[in-house]
């Protein structure tokens, strides 16, 4: 059985997987084999495998030839793929600070996307979103995981979280729209003192013009996003479609399909409509802070 994992030196990226998935769909629709596709661009079947799995940056000539070979005549579709390929090549060349950040682990790809995103819509059901977390709150979460042999190993993770929050400030601040379940505010991570400071931090960030914060109250009952937290990442470029990261107990997964990502947008919007308005959300956070 052939391995589906990239070999050493190969890197699969979100954008490349989007392009590869679209090329695979076009090939299947056209009824062509990988070998036939490879011959059309004077390459080996292995190269087609790498392209379709997003392991390699893609050349514009290859994309154009493959689209023509697959019978794709819609210039807008081809232009979208070429634009995504250009973005992917540029991002592979850029060496972001997160690539050498100790403790970033599986977060590296998400941080890379977050760093170039123009807007993020985030739903969080049990924790304060990472872009809002204070150092003390992050430390308390890490200690709870119980996977650290030395407490000092936690600090690099704390530093990464704090660096990420710089995206909310500066010349090109990230547009952040986050909806948080009331449970995340009442769960006393780290104790009353840590939680009080955390709520104060949320109140401060809620005042930023590029931040929209809403709280989904308990009284809202069942809601569309009850299955779990996720983030919808959007980009400035018109051809770069939204991607979604969903959180799981032991990691995360990417949703890179246009139809599926649109469904998450619908779920987010429906849940936001059930949530308190920003002003009322701030009032709730303030009342909970005073209780502590």
Describe the protein's architecture and organization.
This protein is α/β, with parallel strands linked by helices and 292 residues long. It has two domains: 14-93, lambda repressor-like DNA-binding domains (434 Repressor (Amino-terminal Domain), Orthogonal Bundle), CATH 1.10.260.40; 97-291, Endonuclease, Chain A, CATH 3.30.870. Helix content is 49%, strand content 12%. Strands 3-2-1-4-5-6 form a six-stranded mixed sheet, sandwiched between helices. Helix 1 (14-30) runs parallel beside helix 4, helix 1 (14-30) runs antiparallel to helix 5 (75-93) and helix 4 runs antiparallel to helix 5. The longest helix is centred in the first third of the chain and has 19 residues, at 75-93. The protein starts with 13 loop residues before the first helix and ends with a helix.
Largest beta sheet: strand ordering: 3-2-1-4-5-6
Report the sheet-strand fraction: 5-15%
What is the string of SSEs from the N terminus onward? HHHHHHEHHEHHEEEEHH
Would you report the number of β strands?
Answer: 6
The CATH class of the largest domain is Alpha Beta
CATH architect. name of the largest domain: 2-Layer Sandwich
Output the CATH topology of the largest domain. Answer: Endonuclease, Chain A
* Low-confidence region ranges: 1-9
Oligomer: single chain
- Estimate the helix proportion, in percent: 40-55%
Number of domains: 2
Termini separation: 58 Å
